[in-house]
Amino acid sequence: MYKTLKKTLINKGSNILNRSNTKTRRVRNKYCYIFGYGTLINDISRRNTLKRSSIGIPAIIKKDFLHRRKYSYGGTPGKIKNPIKVLGIEKCLKSKSQKINGILFKLPYHKLKSFDKREGGAIRTQVEWKHIIPYYKDDFPVKKRWDVFIYDDVNSKIKPSDQMTPSEAYIDTTVIGLEKFDEEMAKMFFKTTVGLPRNINTYSKWKKKRDKRLTEYVVASHYGIS
Question: Global pTM?
Answer without folding.
Answer: 0.79
